[in-house]
Design brief:
Layout: E1 9-13, H1 18-29, E2 33-38, E3 52-55, H2 61-75, E4 80-83, H3 98-126, E5 129-133, H4 146-166, E6 172-178, H5 184-188, H6 214-225, E7 236-239
Parallel strand pairs: 1-2, 1-4, 2-3, 4-5, 5-6, 6-7
The structure holds nicotinamide-adenine-dinucleotide.
Length: about 240
């Protein structure tokens, strides 16, 4: 295992589950001090020795500001922010309520913006990095996912714009676009009623098994957040088993 994060402090949102949890573990293995932010309790398995768990809803502007400042004070610096928290649902677009549209946009896109904005002063000081988790649905069309794909497309655009704006200050910004990942989020997704059979194979991965382990996404996040990725600022990296090729 490379040791790219010795002496570094990382903040991971969505740390209680799935990709976020795997990212915490990966960064710990690479020598980081890690804070995990989530609405759910972080470290239910008791394996996050030394991790600072912070209960926070990424939609809450003031709570995010307080949480980020608390993490920076705890760590004495902030080198990496991994925006992993997210929610998803499937629906025929005609059935998407405004409340559901707003919920998906608020967590995935506005939450990412709020955490980025609150972290900026600390990241500029540390010449650190942001890695956002978008989705394959943010870079190609995806069935029955209008709100989610719009939110994740927004995360991709936000990533690129921040990468440009922050380059002179030495802060790098990149994102990963996972395809299907074996997590509670995926397990909880309910198929829509009456799907068009022509769409069901759309976007299927080409490798076997056709679903990623969360650790495979965490490895990409750890790379993009590290100094090894100095020249990869603005990168939009699909981790999708070839389904978006
Ligand atoms: N699983 C997949 O197939 C897949 C594919 C592409 C992208 N993604 C993205 O990967 C990221 C991680 O998803 P996952 O599959 O690990 O899901 P997950 O449900 O296992 O984990 C998501 C975590 O985010 C937290 N969270 C949700 N809303 C929050 C909020 N408002 N504030 C703070 N924390 C909140 C949840 O409590 C949970 O711990 C998400 O952004 C998701 O959109 C997942």
């Amino acid at each position: 295992m490379p040791q790219r994060y010795g002496g570094r402090v990382a903040l991971v949102t969505g740390a209680a589950s799935g990709v976020g949890r795997a990212t915490v573990l990966r960064l710990l293995e690479e020598g980081a001090r890690v804070a995990g932010l989530d609405t759910a309790p972080v470290d239910t398995g008791g394996v996050f020795d030394g991790v600072l768990g912070v209960r926070c809803d990424v939609r809450d502007e003031e709570a995010v500001r307080a949480a980020v400042d608390r993490v920076a004070a705890w760590g004495g610096r902030l080198d990496l922010v991994a925006n992993v928290a997210g929610v998803a649902s499937y629906a025929h677009t005609a059935d998407v309520t405004l409340a559901e549209w707003d919920r998906i946009l608020a967590v995935n896109l506005t939450g990412t913006f709020l955490v980025c904005r609150a972290s900026l002063p600390h990241l500029v000081t540390a010449r650190g990095a942001i890695v956002n988790v978008a989705s394959l649905a943010g870079v190609r069309g995806w069935r029955y996912s209008a709100a989610y794909s719009a939110a994740k497309g927004g995360v991709v655009a936000l990533t690129r714009s921040l990468a440009v704006e922050l380059a002179p200050s030495g802060v790098r910004v990149a994102c990963v676009c996972p395809g299907s990942v074996d997590t509670p989020l995926k397990a909880a997704l309910r198929p829509v009623p009456d799907p068009d059979p022509r769409l069901l194979e759309h976007g299927r991965a080409l490798v076997d098994p056709p679903v990623a382990d969360p650790a495979e996404v965490a490895a990409a996040i750890a790379y993009l957040g590290s100094a090894e990725a100095r020249f990869a600022t603005g990168a939009v990296l699909r981790i999708d088993g070839g389904s978006g090729v």
